[in-house]
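Hi V.,

Quick status before I head out on leave. The structure for the redesign project is tokenized and pasted below; the design run finished overnight.
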């Protein structure tokens, strides 16, 4: 235990005052217990934050590995072993975007790579990134980028 820690300081005070008046020792004993609780809560809070980051990383990794399949928020919550509503709130809190929006953005960024680097049709790209048809893909693309996939391809080729 570092000698600069509040726990160490209070323990040292208690040992130095053990022969003094009991009220003084008792006061330092309460401070000592308070310091222990504070340290415990700090470690628990830190561990909780690490768990949050772990869950988000797990969800993102799942999307990266499975974006071409149908993925729901329920699937992501299940991967993390979390309740759907808690997972959604946690994801939004950590990423500033909903899980569903993240899935869409990830797929569309993959679509941009395919549009730029291949000659695949829009239907082929749509299927490759997890859309059931070209229309849904084009609608999502245009909503996100304010430009059609074909026009985007012409500009970026």
């Amino acid at each position: 235990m570092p000698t600069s820690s509040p726990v160490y300081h209070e323990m040292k005070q208690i040992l130095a005052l053990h022969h003094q008046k009991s009220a003084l020792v008792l006061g330092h004993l309460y401070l000592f217990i308070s310091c222990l609780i504070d340290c415990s809560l700090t470690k628990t809070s830190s561990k909780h934050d690490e768990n949050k980051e772990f869950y988000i990383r797990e969800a993102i990794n799942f999307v990266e590995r499975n974006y071409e399949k149908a993925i729901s928020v329920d699937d992501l919550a299940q991967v993390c072993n979390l309740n759907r509503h808690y997972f959604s709130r946690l994801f939004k809190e950590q990423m500033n975007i909903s899980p569903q929006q993240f899935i869409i953005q990830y797929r569309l960024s993959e679509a941009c790579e395919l549009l730029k680097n291949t000659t695949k049709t829009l239907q082929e790209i749509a299927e490759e990134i997890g859309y059931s048809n070209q229309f849904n893909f084009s609608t999502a693309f245009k909503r996100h980028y304010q430009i059609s996939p074909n026009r985007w391809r012409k500009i970026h080729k």
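Above is the designed sequence. The chain has eight helices and no strands.

G. will cover questions while I'm gone.

Best,
W.
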